[in-house]
């Protein structure tokens, strides 16, 4: 089962905050980040619709609400396809909104590759954490004659920033399953991180309650035990 809806926004009218008020259901929020023209929209559309469209409005950002089944579980995802040019404030909003991230560069554009490390660091700085769930994607692998970024450089960068690495082509219809697997792997990583985070929060909450109970006993506020007389 697949269910998809799309909401488009212009660059000038959007702000993102993670307020948790969307639904009682768990929604995994995915953000695609990268320089203009690297194929963020093409990758998203290829994953969601299996189609390829080569031309997009560079100042339009879209939120795709998607429901499907992964690993026998129903999954609800919101995928934010960010606009090309972004001011610093917008990047901060994206970093706070997302649960996991797709860092995209074009293998035909060395500058887009070099910018990934800066984008990743900004996400870490905004979230005050280096534990960021994400994947690194080198797009346009069909344009081998224009390659500027070797495969091994992509692999090395992925190791450096702690992400899985994929080199794909959104334009190549034979890679539909590869791109689908890529997003499924991202979901699994996001789910694992969320479960671990929630587990730590539950453990911390239990620890606080235990300490409060001990403090009551020490201060003499705990109820006295009742004894049975013969």
UniProtKB/TrEMBL annotation:
Protein name from the UniProt record: small monomeric GTPase
Annotated region described as Disordered, given as residue ranges: 1-21
Keywords: Hydrolase
Listed PROSITE patterns: RAB (PS51419), RAS (PS51421)
GO molecular function terms noted in the UniProt entry: G protein activity; GTP binding
NCBIfam families reported for this sequence: small_GTP
Uppermost EC category: hydrolase
Protein's UniProt keywords contain Transmembrane: no
SMART domains given in the database record: RAB, RAS, RHO
Domain of life: Eukaryota
A Pfam family per the record: Ras
Keyword match Hydrolase: yes
Organism: Mizuhopecten yessoensis (Japanese scallop)
Compositional bias segments (type: Polar residues): 7-21
Coiled-coil regions, chain positions: none
Catalyses which reaction(s): GTP + H2O = GDP + phosphate + H(+)
Family the UniProt entry places it in: Belongs to the small GTPase superfamily. Ras family.
């Amino acid at each position: 089962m697949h269910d998809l809806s799309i909401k488009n926004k212009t660059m000038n009218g959007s702000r993102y905050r993670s307020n948790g008020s969307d639904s009682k259901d768990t929604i995994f929020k995915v953000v695609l980040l990268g320089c203009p023209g690297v194929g963020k929209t093409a990758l998203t559309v290829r994953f969601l619709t299996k189609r390829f469209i080569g031309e997009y409005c560079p100042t339009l950002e879209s939120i795709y609400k998607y429901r499907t089944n992964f690993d026998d579980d129903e999954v609800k995802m919101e995928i934010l396809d960010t606009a090309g040019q972004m001011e610093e404030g917008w990047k901060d909003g994206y970093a706070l909104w997302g649960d996991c991230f797709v860092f995209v560069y074009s293998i035909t554009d060395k500058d887009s590759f070099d910018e990934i490390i800066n984008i990743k660091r900004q996400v870490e700085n905004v979230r005050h954490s280096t534990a960021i769930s994400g994947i690194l994607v080198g797009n346009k692998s069909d344009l081998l004659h224009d390659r500027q970024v070797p495969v091994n450089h992509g692999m090395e960068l992925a190791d450096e920033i702690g992400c899985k690495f994929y080199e794909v082509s959104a334009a190549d219809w034979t890679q539909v399953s590869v791109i689908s697997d890529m997003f499924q792997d991202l979901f699994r990583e996001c789910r694992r991180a969320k479960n671990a985070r929630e587990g730590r929060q539950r453990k911390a909450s239990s620890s606080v309650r235990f300490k409060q109970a001990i403090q009551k006993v020490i201060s003499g506020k705990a109820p006295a035990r009742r004894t049975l007389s013969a």
